[in-house]
Amino acid sequence: MTAPPDIRLPSRHLLGIDGLDERTITGILDLSAIYFTHNRERGPKLKQLSGRTVMNLFFESSTRTRTSFEIAAKRLGGDVVNMNVAASSIKKGETLIDTAMTLNAMYADVLVVRHPDSGAVSLLSDKVNCAVINGGDGSHAHPTQALLDAFTIRHRKGRIAGLTVAICGDVAHSRVARSNIQLLTTMGARVRVVAPPTLLPAGVEGLGADVYHDMREGLSDCDIVMMLRLQAERMRGAFVPSIREYFHYFGLDREKLAFARPDALIMHPGPMNRGIEIDSVVADDIGRSVIAEQVETGVAVRMACLDLVTRSLHNQSGHNQSGHNQSRHDQPGGGAAP
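Request: output the structure for the sequence above.
Response:
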């Protein structure tokens, strides 16, 4: 297996794209490429997380993200615990901090946390000794989704810098959009957001993306069309006149896609609302849609993220001062080359 890049995350946690510069992001993508190849070749079992425990703590329903992290951790030889929040003490009135302290006492090495409230994952990370990866918090951030999207783009296009990426749909409620705008602009892409004014967040102009309210103008000559799910569960009131009208003006179909470059890729973080933000004909276009490939690259990228945050644990005195598993942190497999 190719030697992994020598990179370190700026923190023992991965809570967002903030603080990740171009060199660090490139290193994460390079390490992801090694795991991507390894997974396709069905290489020997890896041991980077041997002896470590990863807890998936999801306060929101999730299939692909939670499963992707579970597979990633197991492919690196780690132990995985999936917390059933619906049956946890949270339902009995326990606070998030009390839950964090309880989990902390169980000496997990990594917590992967998804929460419906923006900022909740960061709050939790301040209270635990282990590493925390943000699996998506409110409408704030979803760093591993942005990283896997960037990996998919680079894998297909060979580069990110200089490409034009149109992020279309419910930007206002999308943590995916925010993290992608940050990451892609850091890597030198030109980013557009395309949505009705009601589905754009306040201050969107300051995020570094160009704003369009017309799909045909927004998609004109773009290299990547990234569609977003209409998140009705986060809406309080009517943000669109009707689903039928929304699809007519902002749903991706062949007629609107024709304004993009002929080799433009179609992306979607899933789950898709077919017939609402995307037509099945373009979603299932095997020549241009990379939606299924995003799921595959997600495992490789999360393997890289789990590898890197556990490497960081070696240098965290606060983690080791707890006195647990000192020998695990010293073993070669904890941060060794894949």
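The radius of gyration is 20 Å.
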